[in-house]
Amino acid sequence: MESRSVIRRGKDVLVEIVVIAVAASFVILGLKAVDRLQSARVAVAPKLPSISVGAQLRIATIGFDNSPVSILLISSPTCAYCLASKPFHIKLSSEAHKNRVPFYVAVPQRRAAEEYLRDVGFQQSSIREWDDLNLRANATPTIAVVDSSGFVKAVWVGVLPPVDESILLNVVQTRSTTPVMRSTPSDSIGLQGVSNYSFRDIAKLKTERNISIIDMHERGFPGTRHDAIVMPLIEVRYRAPVELDQDELQVVDCSNLALSECEECVQQLKQAGFQVATLDAGLYKQTCSATDVH
Amino acid sequence: MPLKLLVIVWVLFAFADARDTTVLVSPAVLRGLAQTVVLPEYPASSSGQNHTGVAVIELVVSASGKVAHTEVLQSPDPSIAAAVAAALRQWSFRPFLVEGIAHPMRSRLIFYFRMEEHKPLVIDATEQNPVPKVKRSRSAGTSLTRVEAGSSNEAPERR
Q: pTM above 0.90?
């Protein structure tokens, strides 16, 4: 009798173990499936050209010809850095309103962003959805200055340092893109003995000499410039001598990177005999991936 | 009930213990440990359409030296990506030892797919470094230096 109950108990325990193991497997499989679904969703996202200096912006039902300068903020209510920048966005929007500079804000979905938009106090007529734009932002928050023909004159990404905030305020106060062109910013740190440029210097630099911009972030990094060669650090030693031109200045985009990583890339390129400069070294732009928050 | 708890704790420990001991090594180190090397084939469909460029593959090698996982990160076209993955799955490596213990390793290998004088050419950039340039802006790349990567003192077996 006793031995039967022992056997039964043993069976029960075995069943419980199997049930728990199966449940654990289901949880793991479920998590993997969710992960796969999310990657698939990112992969099928439509690929519009990135918003960048020189690109022509079109927003559904909006013309830019009424003002010499317009501002577009691409934001998301679920992006922590957009929320962190809210006070500046409110200030910029109010300055723009005061100076009759059109200020547009684009969010992933207007309905889902109602509370955020109400908080910030944007005018209903200035609110658009990302799908209304012909260009996409790689990351949020992104602010673009647009001229009367719709051409993008400057782009800022992420939480802005005070120097960039004052340039933007200056743009709306003067109703002109001149403050962008005149600025000689770069509060970035740079590396010893290596020229460091700000992203606003790059257009000018390109007119003076041949340059390549090297982005050593991993593929898919949301802040990658459209004109950059993506070459993650681990690949630089092997690919740089083959793919880069010795006669060009190699500008390493060091924004959003630890200085040590930036320095390693610079050293590797120097050892391979390249002339090297950095872009926004030490400037950590806090951004959200636009695909994550869509 | 206590037994149930015990099993749950055991399951949790079992998963917690499955720590990832994979070591990230440089491509040169990985290449230096290669024992069986199978160069990817240049698919006829790709060379026919003049699809050239770089293919980058990430691989995880088990502690015993077998290729456990491959992921093509970049390639000129999907056929080349498939050819690279198929070839790399046949590679084998000597174990990567840390204090005498073999560890799984993760790294990348880089291949160039080129057409030279209308002939398809696959170059293992991790082994052959520097690889001659396609666009020679000056004398760079005219000489071809073969550098054995890594600390391997055994010639890898070629198929």
A: no
